[in-house]
Amino acid sequence: MTNAAEVVRLDPSDPAFGADRHAAYRRLREAAPVARTVVNGQDSWLLTGYAEVEKVLKSPANAVQPHPGEFPAHIGSGPAAEFYRFSLPNVDAPAHTRLRKLASPAFQPRSVKRMRAWVEEIVTAGLDELAGRDGVVDFVREYAMKIPALIACRLLHAPMADAATVLERMPGLNAVLSQGDITPEQLAEADATAQFYFDYIGDIVDTLRGKLDEDDPVGALLLAEADGERLSRTELVVTLVGFFVASYHTTMVAMTNAVYALTSNKDEFRALAGDPSAARAAWEENLRFEAPVHFVWRYAGAGLELGGTPIPEGDHLLLGLAAANRDPARFERPDAFDPRRPDNRHLAFTAGGHFCLGAPLSRLEGEILLRELPRRLPDLELCDAEPPRTTDLTFAMISRLDVAPRGR
Fold it and tell me: What gap in Å lies between CA 406 and CA 101, rounded to an integer?
């Protein structure tokens, strides 16, 4: 058994760790679901068990800020830090309560329902384009990067012609959002990326003001008012940049993961073809099986105890979402991809007060993709059983996925 006092090192650049993260998470969870680690130069508690991660997420006593008004030193003081400080996932109540109340109308059921027709058009047009391709294509570059970019641009009223290029810089922000270590070069890139999107989205906001109704997601934000307060321009721009990040990056990763899982499990692919109504459940299982975000963080509130270990108030907590989603204490056969899983309360969208605001849009995109994929690409085949993956600790992703749309 590993003693909780021992320090666990997570090195995403280690080929053994990168080759099978889930095996590493399983060993950690079995040895000590609450362990010590170091991240971004600070001591931390690493949580890999579902019960422990869910408990921390659902308790409002645990915070995302070290202290009220304080932010981690590693994000610097430039544009990337400004993006971080005003982003919904990175602030606590009462600021979080106010911002979420103002931003939530953008993804109310009525707003998402109005998106369905054009989201379906974009998703299916991309599949039809793939269906016409011969030979081997990279699904990441030819679909997973393109379709969420088009949806993000349409959502934010950015020119659709910009979709091919404007989101290429988005991964530059990951360095300040990740729980992995950050270099001065990565921070400089994050600052430049944040400033680019502040300028780009700021111009869109100034152009659209007064031209959209409350049923439009951006219009809802422009008109948002609660308790006599409105979003400031900085809050509005940062919120929209956050939507850009969420609707692009995590959806790109989730779509790639779904295609990899289904083409690696041909029986499930054929079953989905025979029952398109199972698409929604299959998307939820995809999010559980391979969470697009592997880690989030919190700071311990007073009186927190995890797995019998008392956690000092203010200590940093590294929450393993991907590890928790494969905890056998919560899910039967956790390492099996099972779209018919009856009880699938995964933590890919986190839980509690910071539950992902954009979850309804993700679910809409995923349902459409997995309903139409087997119908429009019935002969889709995986060409690389071990595709290359990135080494970021938090944002683990398949960087290239070679598939044959018409089979081989």
Answer: 47
End-to-end CA distance of the chain: 48
Q: Which amino acid is at 386?
A: E
Identity of the amino acid at 274: G
Please report, for residues 29, 301, 308, 327, the alpha-carbon distance to residue 1 in angstroms, rounded to integers and kept in the order given.
11, 27, 15, 18
* Phi, psi angles (nearest 5°) of residue 241: -60, -40
Torsion, Cα of 239, 241, 246, 251 (10° steps): 150
- C-alpha–C-alpha distance, residues 260 and 258, integer Å: 5
- Host H or E run for residue 305: strand 305-306
Confidence label for 2 from pLDDT (cuts 50, 70 and 90)? very low
Q: Would you put residue 265 in left (φ > 0), alpha (ψ -120 to 50) or beta?
A: beta
DSSP for 85-130 reads: HHSGGG--TTHHHHHHHHHGGGGSHHHHHHHHHHHHHHHHHHHHHH
Question: What are the φ/ψ torsions at residue 33 (nearest 5 degrees)?
Answer: -65, -10
Contacts of 333 (CB under 8 A, 6+ apart): none
Q: 309-339 burial string, b = 16+ CB within 10 Å, else e?
A: bebeeebbbbbbbbbbbbbeebbeebeebbb
Please choose, from the candidates 23, 14, 307, 22, the residue with its C-alpha nearest in 3D space to the C-alpha of residue 180.
Answer: 14
pLDDT (average), residues 379-391? 92
Asked if 14 and 288 touch (Cβ cutoff 8 Å), the reply is: no
At residue 14, the pLDDT reads 87
Question: Taking the model in full, what pTM does it have?
Answer: 0.91
**Residues 6 or more apart from 274 whose CB is under 8 A from it?**
none
Helix (H) or strand (E) holding 21: helix 21-31
- Are 226 and 102 contacting, i.e. CB atoms less than 8 angstroms apart? yes
- pLDDT tens for each residue of 264-315: 999 999 999 999 999 999 999 999 999 999 999 999 999 999 989 999 999 9
Q: Are 104 and 357 in contact (CB under 8 A)?
A: yes
Q: Read off the pLDDT of residues 143-194 as tens digits, 9 standing for 90 and up.
A: 999 999 999 899 888 898 888 788 788 888 888 877 767 888 999 999 999 9
Residue 202 phi/psi, 5-degree rounding, is -60, -40
| Encoded amino acid at 183, one letter | T
Residues 12, 392: contact at Cβ < 8 Å? yes
Q: How far is residue 264 CA from its own chain's centroid?
A: 22
